[in-house]
Design goal:
Length: about 230
């Protein structure tokens, strides 16, 4: 059973989600102010935290930073705003994913399972990643799509592997520049855009008709199996 800590000040949302997540088989505890949430994160050792950004006592981004200082527990942030620079800041500040209000317990459950799946495989950087018909093997540095080998440059391979290892997760261009290009500051989003478009072409898709590479407007990119 997964223990979810819900930090949310709205009593109605808290009650609805607690019930909904319990129906999905999770153990749920909750806090309605940031400082209680921080305390519970340390003392109760939850498997995952759902963090509402609009809390009365502390800015959600500040709480996220405080959480990250004491714990690597996966955090999903819940926000009323979509696709703004705030979201990029939060993902870069250590959020693992986000949901936009209003969202259902079922949606949240899907995100929780995806985040925990990734957290569970995060330590195994050398294992083959399979997403739909896509297979990426970091040891042989071979990637195949539906059994056909993809001819990728080293950078394209790194990019594909990074995204595939985080399938379902929104990855910001900033994160890609830092992690794939190893550019600590600055660097141009354009570089990422160009490589993503090359990768798209090799995967046989386009930005207009994406299959594996989904653009999340204003935030970044998400690799997932075609539906
Ligand atoms: Ca709130």
């Amino acid at each position: 059973m997964v223990h979810v800590l819900l930090i949310e000040d709205d009593a109605t949302i808290r009650a609805t989600l607690t019930r909904g997540l319990r129906d999905h088989g999770h153990a749920v505890s909750s806090a309605h102010i940031a400082m209680d949430g921080l305390r519970a994160a340390v003392s109760d050792r939850p498997d995952l935290i759902v963090l509402d950004l609009g809390l009365p006592d502390l800015d959600g981004a500040d709480l996220l930073r405080m959480l990250r200082a004491v714990s690597r527990v996966p955090v999903i942030v819940a926000t009323a705003r979509d696709g703004d620079s705030e979201m990029i800041r939060l993902l870069d500040a250590g959020a693992d994913d986000y949901v936009v209000k209003p969202y259902s317990a079922a949606q949240l459950d899907a995100r929780i399972r995806a985040v925990l799946r990734r957290a569970g495989t995060a330590g195994s950087a050398d294992t083959t990643v399979t997403v739909g018909g896509l297979r990426v093997d970091p040891r042989t540095r071979e990637a195949t799509l539906d059994g056909t080998t993809l001819e990728l440059t080293p950078r394209e391979f790194e990019l594909l592997h990074y995204l595939a290892a985080r399938a379902g997760e929104v990855v910001t261009k900033r994160e890609l520049l830092t992690e794939v290009w190893q550019v600590p500051y600055g660097g141009a989003d354009k570089t990422v855009d160009v490589h993503l478009s090359w990768l798209r072409r090799k995967l046989g898709e386009s930005a207009q008709e994406p299959r594996y590479l989904q653009t999340v407007r204003g935030v970044g990119v998400r690799l997932c199996a075609p539906s």
